Each structure stands twice: as structure tokens, then as C-alpha cells.
Amino acid sequence: xxxxxxxxxxxxxxxxxxxxxxxxxxxxxxxxxxxxxxxxxxxxxxxxxxxxxxxxxxxxxxxxxxxxxxxxxxxxxxxxxxxxxxxxxxxxxxxxxxxxxxxxxxxxxxxxxxxxxxxxxxxxxxxxxxxxxxxxxxxxxxxxxxxxxxxxxxxxxxxxxxxxxxxxxxxxxxxxxxxxxxxxxxxxxxxxxxxxxxxxxxxxxxxxxxxxxxxxxxxxxxxxxxxxxxxxxxxxxxxxxxxxxxxxxxxxxxxxxxxxxxxxxxxxxxxxxxxxxxxxxxxxxxxxxxxxxxxxxxxxxxxxxxxxxxxxxxxxxxxxxxxxxxxxxxxxxxxxxxxxxxxxxxxxxxxxxxxxxxxxxxxxxxxxxxxxxxxxxxxxxxxxxx
Length: 386
Prior knowledge:
The structure is a single chain. By secondary structure, the protein is of the alpha+beta class. The protein is about 65% helix and about 10% strand. Among the domains are: about 15-140, no CATH class; about 260-385, Histidine kinase-like ATPase, C-terminal domain (Heat Shock Protein 90), CATH 3.30.565.10. The protein has helices spanning about 15-40, 45-65, 70-90, 100-110, 115-135, 145-225, 230-255, 260-275, 295-315, 350-360, and strands at about 280-285, 320-325, 330-335, 365-370, 375-385. Helix 1 (about 15-40) packs antiparallel against helix 2. It catalyses: ATP + protein L-histidine = ADP + protein N-phospho-L-histidine. One of its GO terms (cellular component) is membrane.
């Protein structure tokens, strides 16, 4: 059976080593108090024997901590603390204040062992009551309010420290849970994105291969009908379609990979873009830093979307891609000359709208529009933290 009260960190940890250390401290402190009493108080004094009995009770409580933590041993430990505090308090009748140390030790031990309010209150009341009775029996009534104040202050400080420790532990647990939740959310987002990209790859292959088959069949029919020039044009069109489909497939496969960080993803996307016959100039500024999985995935998809849009709406035009790192976050900008009749001239397409939603979901923003130099510019900002 386990105790309903968890052990106090650093005080009642499982295992023998912390318990033995506590017993050793109790024995050394008890021996010091006992020997001091023997040096300043006559051995025949009742107060000295009460002091020794109180110290023995506290040592006994520390020994009980070595036993399995059950309700029975916990009640016995509380009884030992109550008895030790009361006997040490009574000893003040003739021990010149030596009983104060065991009383304070009993109260602190009761709080640090995470005992409930009733148990801690019993220890504090026993110590205060014993101290008051001992002071009255010893003809020192002025010690009564001082003793009550000392016990109250000790109890208050010990409880405040315990509450602070519990609050710190709760905050630590909440932080761990929050980090775990964020990690799971990022993993789920990555899996969903990979599933979508896999669907994109399937669509690209299905469309490209279907159209390629149709064009090759047409070229074969034209050859059979005696139109070699038209057949050659159909084959050239099929070759162009195959090249475009291969480039799209490479981009989808690159996005499905898991490179080591955003820089590796960026290099892969730029390489694939150039292999498709398009031009891109990459400029990096600032010192790169690690992004969390959700932002790293978003940054990778933003670069991919920017290059794809430029290739579709301004084919053959060079793209200036700038990646800027700052302590506040990551900024990705793409600028390219507009082709005549480009769809960019009328506003945002579906790709840019999805990019804007992705950035907003992470606390970022997207700015896009035509520049005075008849270029189209898109700037995306992802904060380091939401």
C-alpha cells in the first residue's frame, strides 16, 4: 500500500540513501543537543531527561522513514514528532532554552515530509503547548508569547516553502505536458502535410502519364497517316510534358523527404528548381537558428510555393529569393519580373492564399503585390515563437 501523500523532493525520496542521511543528521544533531544539555544542566534535572526523551522521539521518527511508507508507519512517525515536540517544550522548565531547537526541528520535519494540515497542526500545537507549560513551570511566563511567536513563524515559513516547492513542481509538469502537446501537434501537422504531398505526387504522375500516352498515340497515328512533321511536333510536345512532369515529381519527392533542418530543405528546393530550367538567385542574411517542427515545415512549404508560383506565372523569368534570419524570426522573400498577362496582376491565387493561412496560423504574416518596377514580390514572416 502506498501513502496518499507523495514524498517531499530531496527529503523523503525512495531508497535507503536519503533515509540514512537523514538518520545520520538526526543522530549528530541529537547528540549535540544532549551533550550540550549535559554540560549546562544538572543530570538530575527533570528537564534534561525530558529533553533527551524528546530528542529520542525525533530520532525514532527518522528511523521510521527507513521502513516502507504505509499509513501505519506514517501515523507512528507523526506521533513521534508530536511527542518529541511536547517533551522538548516541557524541558524548557530547566534547560535554559535548549528545547527550542527540537521543537523547531519537529515542525520543519512535519512540513517537509508533506504531512497533511491536521498532522502538522498537532506537531505545532504540541510544541507550543509544551513550551508554554515548561515556561510556566520554570517560572518564566515571559517565554510563553515568545515561544508561540517562534513556533508560528517557523510553521508559516515552512508552509510557504512547501507551497512554493509544490507550485514549482506543478509548473514543471504543466510545461512538460505543453511541450509534449506541441510536439504531437507538430508531428500530426507534418504527417498531414506529407499525406497531402503524396496525393499531389499521385495527381502529377497520373496527369502527366495520361497526357503523355495520349500525345504519343497521336504521334503514332500521324506517322501512319503520312504526316511526319506533325508527328515530330507531337513528340516534342510529349517530351516537354515529360520534362515538366519529372520536375513536378522531383519537387514533390523533395518535399516528402526529411532533410536535416531548413537549410538542407532550402538547398534541395533551389536545386530542383534550377534543374527544371528555371533561374533563381538565393541570398541569405543573418544567423540561422533552429526552428520548431511546425515552423520548419511551414518555411519549407513557403519556399516551395513561392518557386512553384514563379515558375507557373512567370516562366523563364529569374527569381530573386532572399532568406533573412533575425532573433524575431525568419523572413522569406521572392521577387520576379511579371510575364505579360500573368495571373499575378489581379491579386492572390489559391497558393498564396493557402500560404497566408499557414503563416497566420503560426503568428506570422504574408505581404504580396506588384512593385513599381513591374515585378511581383511576396514576403513571408514566421516568428521564432508564437
